[in-house]
């Protein structure tokens, strides 16, 4: 005898083991937020519209096509019927092989339940996917004959049946059944269509793949009348007709979809490079990324651009930042957003609010270069801030600015992770085409409905490929070794090995030709791997991310250039740094000289203004001579030594203080020279004494004006001391990095899943265990048991002696009523201490809050 299947989704869930329930809750974490009280509540929540929509959006294309086929199949449907809708009359071995996996996915996510002969799509999913004039089916199929004729008069139905060549019946139900049987019979249906005029068949061909609805006039043409008289087109509203589902399926050869995609498209490599070339290219870009972030924050050391009233960076300031970094504005927005997401940049929160580096930036600078890169890369991988949106408009048509609100997209981390995972699945050194990556992502998450932002995931994927190259996660479009470690992906095995193509040639590969992706840097005779093993990489937990970042830093460190402790001084007042400089040397050169050009080597130029800047920072001429002599591989040129001595001789000879501002100098001839200079007219100086000039301008304006005239004044404090200015004086208060915006409830870990399943099982036991009602009980089914205080006390005491479990009704201090299954241990002092099967722990209950008690029915 066959065992009857479950009668509801709740019963189907009760038949699952803990591992299957855990897989469901892991795939749909919204179902345990909060934890359901029992399996009935879990089934109800799994059928809500919001939860089903979220589950459907996370299906791959073939699983979604399977659900769409079930939505237009009979309810319930057999597996063979579903297979016929997916493969059609001709069959498809690939679909046949992949269909069990798709059905298993739908079962696991509680979208389908029932046995193989009674597959049921949950009602909400059927409503979302079923066809209607307002919401056409994704399959392009219309309603069934029974649904389309629901409002038709019995006389009209009998006319259609007779015209179609069937015998007249006594009722509409049998007439509709006869017409449905005709349309489902391939032989009779072929004969009926063969009688139709060519124009009629052309109309059916236009409607067969959808949309199935069309418009007709009050007096349709003869070829349309032929179809209407035989039920091949059925009216649904005045002037509107529909192609019945059974007719469309016959014309389609039994298929629900024009094309089915059982297998995901594989990303196609367009070029294959040596792994060493990829790693070296990525490492060079990683070093450039670090230098760019340092340059950005160094430029904002004394306080960066002002914060807009609505938050964010103005368009003008973004342009200035792009010019300073010598990059385009979108790239500048990426670096600004990355520094902000890493917690290196924030607003200072002062009255005149500006952006500046945070104290975390100073700590970051002290770390080794590889660790600094790993922090930036891990931040980028998990951040929901999306720099690519900068310059666009939000839903309210407001401009989106860098560092401003509205840039968070919860899907960004998932898309970045998935794109890099696809790269990790390719042979080592293989660079895919962006379009093939997008095709794979669209298969994994097909778009549903015009209401969805059908372009966001594609844009996120393209931005990911660009940003990964900028950051040095990829090199020449291929995933680097340290990028693979950052992702937590296993090291590649098989044909693609580091060191060239000999191993590939020995492992059964095809020679690269015109129809193959080109092979770069491998040399003649190297082979291109054709087959590779897909890599599945799950997102990492925070502890795993720390381990992956450390591994990526270890792999990157040997590839980064070693910092140098010297420069090459030139006679033309320049210094050449042939590589990256050690931090103390680089910091001092940034003060003493101006950067003239960048690249493989950095060229610094010494000017009177740059030397004066070093003197303003508290250095003396002897300090500068000693510094240059200690860090130059060439002798200090005489012009540079003269420049330093000449600026130092003039530096501080003039003193500027606050009057609003004043100038004092022991050399009255120098003050006479200033007063006689026409360029000083805008400063409106006046002599207070032979050695003192005063002005209404502020000290900073006076300093800039005198320096523009070629003098080297020094700022003076109220005590008469020289004020030493330092470029790194401004920092924001400690700021936390912005938290990513989660994409729905987080995936539960093993501990939470175990606790949730135990609570659901216990609650289900309490709600479904058969109960024995006292003979006098008249309460309706499902109500709390009601017994007198004496009966309650007596039953509790008896259960203590026998060890039996009881069903009780309980009202807590807040007035919330619940049902519980308990095993009393002790009854005394107006309290009962018992093991609560619902909560799976020992608890104490006041007897006056127990509404009643009943024995559990005997198990049979």
Automatic annotation (TrEMBL):
Q: Which UniProt keywords apply?
A: ATP-binding, Helicase, Hydrolase, Nucleotide-binding
| UniProt domain Helicase XPB/Ssl2 N-terminal: residue ranges | 567-689
Where are stretches of biased composition, namely Polar residues?
766-779
Task: Extract the InterPro entries matched here.
Answer: WYL_dom, XPB/Ssl2_N
Question: Which PROSITE patterns does its entry note?
Answer: WYL (PS52050)
Query: In what residue span(s) does the WYL domain sit?
Result: 791-853
Residue ranges for the region (Disordered) are: 130-149, 490-533, 725-750, 764-785
What is the name listed in the Swiss-Prot or TrEMBL entry for this protein? Helicase C-terminal domain-containing protein
Species of origin: Streptomyces cylindrosporus
